[in-house]
Write a structure and sequence with these properties.
Layout (H helix, E strand, L loop, with lengths): L1 E5 L5 E5 L9 H15 L40 E6 L5 E5 L4 E4 L6 E2 L8 E7 L2 E6 L4 E4 L6 E5 L6 E5 L4 E5 L2 E5 L7 E2 L8 E7 L5 E6 L2 E5 L7 E3 L18
Antiparallel strand pairs: 1-2, 3-4, 4-5, 5-6, 7-8, 8-9, 9-10, 11-12, 12-13, 13-14, 15-16, 16-17, 17-18
Length: about 250
């Protein structure tokens, strides 16, 4: 192979070159060609990533809070119910532990009152176009509607226990006596009990005015006139003797 060139004096000259085979391995040559192709080849298309989507959060419009603020009871289920009042076509009114009240309208699911009474409810009556509820302490709470808020509170003249409601009266225990109220807890009077002694421990009265009173030791009284009068029932179990703490069953 000959190449033409120009000498420093300006005369053309020829340089003879001997060609020789490549000393590089084929793999190196392929790598070099590939590198040249990558480096010198035409540029590929430019990929443009789209911008991320814009998320717009909806603004929730909240109404003005109620004034004054109040608590609302959302009872999950009825439990510990201890008193019932039949309201006819309106449904059944229930009261119980913790002062809860429920109205079962028979046409829809039971509804709970939005507020509770200060104590457990042991009895209730309809009175004067409203309702009266007696608690375990003998305190009476009145409301204008079955599930409405308390409009009046009537505390008993002395500590009472075991309140119960009948047809139109309340009963409660005080020491060795049974007290009765016929004016929704405004006044209480002592009930005359049959001779025989004993300490009243439990009361039960229904909407018809029929009830029982359990006295210790081993005595049961019955009333059929809403607690006004009482009579003794024969007990199948004799009272324990002074020398034995075990009651004896007699035929």
């Amino acid at each position: 192979m000959k190449l033409s060139t120009v000498s420093p004096e300006g005369r053309p000259s020829a340089i003879a070159l001997r060609s020789r085979p490549f000393a590089c391995a084929p793999e190196v040559l392929l790598l070099a060609i590939t590198a040249v192709g990558v480096g010198c080849g035409p540029a590929g298309p430019t990929v443009v990533k789209p911008p991320p989507p814009t998320v717009t959060k909806a603004k929730t419009q909240l109404g003005a809070p109620p004034t004054p603020a109040r608590w609302s009871l959302n009872a999950a289920h009825a439990k510990g119910l201890r008193a019932k009042l039949d309201l006819g076509t309106t449904g059944l009114l229930y009261g119980g532990a913790g002062g809860v009240r429920w109205l079962d309208s028979k046409q829809a699911s039971p509804v709970a009152a939005e507020s509770t009474l200060p104590e457990s409810i042991t009895g209730m009556i309809a009175v004067g176009g409203g309702f009266a509820f007696v608690g375990e302490s003998g305190t009476v709470y009145t409301t204008a509607t079955a599930l409405g808020p308390v409009t009046a509170k009537r505390s008993p003249p002395q500590p009472l226990r075991g309140g119960a409601a009948g047809k139109s009266s309340f009963l409660a225990l005080a020491g060795d006596d049974i007290l009765r109220s016929t004016d929704a807890g405004a006044t209480w009077s002592k009930v005359t009990l049959p001779a025989g002694g004993g300490t009243p421990t439990h009361l039960a009265l229904n909407e018809s005015g029929v009830g029982l009173a359990l006295l210790a030791p081993q005595r049961v009284l019955v009333t059929q006139d809403d607690g006004a009068t009482w009579a003794a029932l024969a007990s199948p179990v004799s009272a324990p003797s002074a020398s034995s703490s075990t009651a004896t069953v007699t035929s």
